[in-house]
Amino acid sequence: MRIVGLPDDILLQVVLYLSIQDVLSFKQTCRVLHAFGSTDYLWHRLAERSDLLLNISSNTVITELPADELQRVVIDAIRLELNWRRSSPRIKRTMSLNIANDALFEHLHFVNGGKWLLVVQGHPRRFEERVYTQIYFWDLHVLNEPRCVIRFELIGKHRASAVTLHDQEESATLVVALNDASADFFEVRTFSLTGEFTTLSHVGALPSVAKRIELPPSSGPLRAISVTSVSVCGHVLAATVVIFAPDQAATSHIVVARTDNGSAHWMQREPYKPIHSALTRLHRNNIIIFGHNTEGYACHVYELPPSLLYPCSRSHMSLSDCDFPDNLLEWGPLVAHSTCVMDKLFNLFPEPSTIPSASGEILAFMLMAESCAYLMRFHLSARTTSSSSGKRFVRPITVKIRADTSVRLVGVGISGRRAVWMEHNLETTRSQLMKLEALQDDTTDGEYTQISSGVLLPPDPPLPFSTDACQGLAFDEASGRLCIGLWGGSLYLVDFS
């Protein structure tokens, strides 16, 4: 019997044994098999079982995509994977973004698969005793025609920032933690993404929806407060606040707030084996806490309290209204917890700005040591285990760093399967951008425990700049895009897809 004569259900079972590349070749044999190999159901099954890094939104369900669109996404992922694994990956295109000043880049961050870009610059003004923070938000859906959809300026020194999209990417909410020389506070701005701002010779008007959420004021010389990281998801923000007191160790606390009505609370002391010097991220309806505790390097996932998910009737309450530390919000149930038991990690802390937003089921970041780095990948969902506690034990992926080099910039993909970092040679004073890919190990139930690394951009790449001039970095693993900010204020996009 010829293969085209097989019943569809049997033919489907045969085709599912093929790789995606084989299916693409299989489609080219005849019209009948081309039609069968283009069905939605087949490509949904192929995409679901594939370990390719697909450039689709985290809230997109694969089964909702038509076969032709899904096939295009899969082919792009295959091309990027092949290019990334080359000893010298090819640069597909390079583009300069028009930035109006030469200020330092405080934060560069890709959103939603490299389709949007947040740019934050610190801009001290001459003859003024204050610092300004300038915000740009770029639309990169059409990379050859990037659009700056919003640009505005805030008074204060940048501490941390985060952005979330709403209404099928028609609007966005930006949270910026600032310091105005007297206290740290949050500026919350909501703006439309459907307009276009093209004139960069002056500062654009502020977004129409704006809120200021203040942190508790310092009580004289007894206490100083600093925001070290912030995360936003939907209408909820969470931040890590470090409190310094004389003759005492610094302590970290978690603050949460609603971005729509300004209600805010301090969180209680963590109930499950508290994490010291904790950082936080939001993921769907959960809050993630990670850092050191008595067991090792840990990651705890809790449900958000219902009072945060469902806004209260009070229109506004700043953090100054909370009687810290008496008015505290209780944690929700513990959803998942993971621990890495490794003494070498004890004094290592990730740079908060290098930690990507939590997406999918992984929180990934890198811990830098003197002669190596550790790629951490924590699972965010619970699973059934032989242990009554259901705890996951995580083994970090070790990345060797040359002894005569230092690491200045780090970019980690949201799944932790690809990462980049700027390696500076202390003897030659030259810098090069390194790349990494985490690979599955068949002996560890498909866990990513092996790596492949190499040079992504040498000190003098075929680009209009040298890697020695890099001052800021953003990286998106699914699109293969880099955003590189240079000393002097120039900003470039480098695409490897």
Can you offer a commentary on this structure?
It contains six helices and 29 strands. With 497 residues, the protein is mainly β. A hairpin with a 5-residue loop joins β12 and β13. α4 packs parallel to α5. The protein is globular.
Summarize this structure as a short list of keywords or feature phrases:
single chain, 497 residues, mainly beta, five-stranded mixed β-sheet, globular
- Unreliable segments (pLDDT under 50, ≥5 consecutive)? 198-205, 217-222, 313-326, 384-388
Structural class: mainly beta
Beta-strand content bin: 35-45%
| Secondary structure tally, helices | 6
How confident is the prediction overall: mean pLDDT?
84
Query: Percent of residues in helical segments?
Result: 10-25%
How does the SSE layout of this entry go?
Layout: H1 8-15, H2 20-27, H3 31-36, H4 40-49, H5 67-84, E1 93-97, E2 104-111, E3 116-124, E4 131-139, E5 147-155, E6 157-166, E7 171-179, E8 184-192, E9 209-214, E10 224-233, E11 236-244, E12 251-258, E13 264-267, E14 276-283, E15 286-292, E16 297-303, H6 306-309, E17 328-329, E18 334-340, E19 362-368, E20 372-379, E21 392-393, E22 397-400, E23 405-412, E24 418-425, E25 431-440, E26 448-457, E27 470-476, E28 481-486, E29 491-495
Parallel strand pairs: 13-17, 18-21
Antiparallel strand pairs: 1-29, 2-3, 3-4, 4-5, 6-7, 7-8, 8-9, 10-11, 11-12, 12-13, 14-15, 15-16, 16-18, 19-20, 20-22, 23-24, 24-25, 25-26, 27-28, 28-29
